[in-house]
Specification:
- This protein is mainly beta.
- It contains no helices and eleven strands.
- A hairpin with a 3-residue loop joins β9 (92-99) and β10.
Length: 115
């Protein structure tokens, strides 16, 4: 069955870094557009970053440009989100999403930025 399993979340101090991973299985990962979303308490889920199936094009929310980097390894069926210079406002549950013929979501991983 289809699975998207996020990992790498945790508690980090402001200015710190985290690397999220999303391991995919059960579908043809290499043809899917992959993205990361986040949802903070009391707020709507928002797009953070996306990457095309080949990895050749990426896009980012203005709030994370220059700090976050999305990448993928199609040989490992995994998409990553490198997060640097983290701020308290980056605190949220982070989800990966696969978009194609069907859309699939992971279960989310908590990121907390706090001193």
């Amino acid at each position: 069955q289809v699975q998207l399993v996020e990992s790498g979340g945790g508690l980090v101090q402001p200015g710190g870094s985290l690397r999220l991973s999303c391991a995919a299985s059960g579908f043809t990962f290499t043809v899917y557009y992959m993205s990361w979303y986040r949802q903070a308490p009391g707020k709507e889920r928002e797009l953070v970053a996306g990457i095309t199936s080949s990895g050749g094009r990426t896009n980012y929310a203005d709030s994370v440009k220059g700090r976050f980097t999305i990448s993928r390894d199609n040989a490992k069926n995994t998409v990553y989100l490198q997060m640097n210079s983290l701020k308290p406002e980056d605190t949220a549950v982070y989800y990966c999403k696969a978009a194609g013929i069907s859309d699939f979501w992971g279960q989310g991983t908590q990121v907390t930025v706090s001193s």
